[in-house]
Amino acid sequence: RGRPAAMEAREPLRDARGALRAVLARVREGEPGEGREPFELPRFWDALGQTFQVTSQEATKLSLAFSRPPLPSAEDCRKLSEDVQNAILAVATVYYWLPKGQGTTLRKMVRDATTEVVEGMIQLTDTILNSPVESLSQEQLISTGGVWEACEQVSNLPRDNQAAVSSALAACLGVVKDAVEEMEHALVEGQDPYGDIMEDEELGFRGNRDTYWSEADRQLLSSCVGLMKASKACLKKVLGAVKAYGKADSPEQIAQLDDLADIANEISPSVDELALSMYPPVNPLAVRLNAAKLASVLKKVLEIAKTSHVCPPSEEGWVQFLNDAVDHNMNKIKNFTQDQL
């Protein structure tokens, strides 16, 4: 007889979970409210920090209530569920204050953080609804910790679009660095790219030419690595310029930073595609196509940087230098693949 009563007591929590799912869908898809009043960034951060903190506390209260007998009464459960719902609604409401004009890169990072908090709370209510009554499960502990962690993220968020774009560029740079290192490592003279996985135990050798690079392959690929290194240098230089000269004071500056982040985001997928096409058996035309695509992304990044406020005349030297480096490697790649056309 105890079971149905316990299930009934948790009914409000079920409703709350439904409401949280609706909030999550709105945060994922929703458009920002364009300022009803003058928007102040410091006020926004204070308010967001507070709502995240309250959510963290509500998660703790909810989790504790369901961690030991006696279980909360239907009335208590309704109160707890309401508080959780209100905390999450407050988080979403403050997120909506942030207008697009403050920067789409910044907004996406805040949206991701907000989404994680709402998802965390849904996960916690799920866990409580699905776990046997009157015992604190390992899952429940983990879910509660998940909400705490998601709520603490607010303190690490970039505070304006200049910081947001710097952080986005730094993330791209990390990915590209890894890709360059991996490729350089694979191309070490005489090394067999598949040596670790393709060794034939019985015979001690492998008969398949398709798993080797020819001398011609190696020449072509070294220019591809040159192009990959130019990608790394591009990101490094643009990141440096954004940190040194980037501002988020005017709509124009904010938009220029977003344009840079958007195009820079295309670098690492393009580097990855080029790297994938470099493994044997090499199809020189596929390599050339992927290289050309990466080269055009890099030229666009340099063009956007050059015409933006992050690039005063003192910075134009490296823009020109990197433009030349991209052309130089691309021309070599074209020469190596000319007879394939």
UniProtKB/TrEMBL annotation:
Q: Which residue positions does the secretion signal occupy?
A: none
What Pfam families does the entry give? GCIP_C, GCIP_N
Question: Where mainly located?
Answer: cytoplasm
What residue stretches are annotated with the Cyclin-D1-binding protein 1-like N-terminal domain? 48-187
Give the record's keywords alphabetically. Cell cycle, Cytoplasm, Nucleus
**Nucleus among keywords:** yes
The protein's superkingdom reads Eukaryota
Residue ranges of the Cyclin-D1-binding protein 1-like C-terminal domain? 199-303
Intracellular or extracellular location(s): Cytoplasm; Nucleus
The reply on keyword Metal-binding is no
**Gene3D superfamilies according to UniProt:** I/LWEQ domain, Talin, central domain
Task: Kindly state one GO CC term assigned in the UniProt record.
Answer: nucleus
Family of the protein in this entry: Belongs to the CCNDBP1 family.
Listed name of the protein: CCDB1 protein
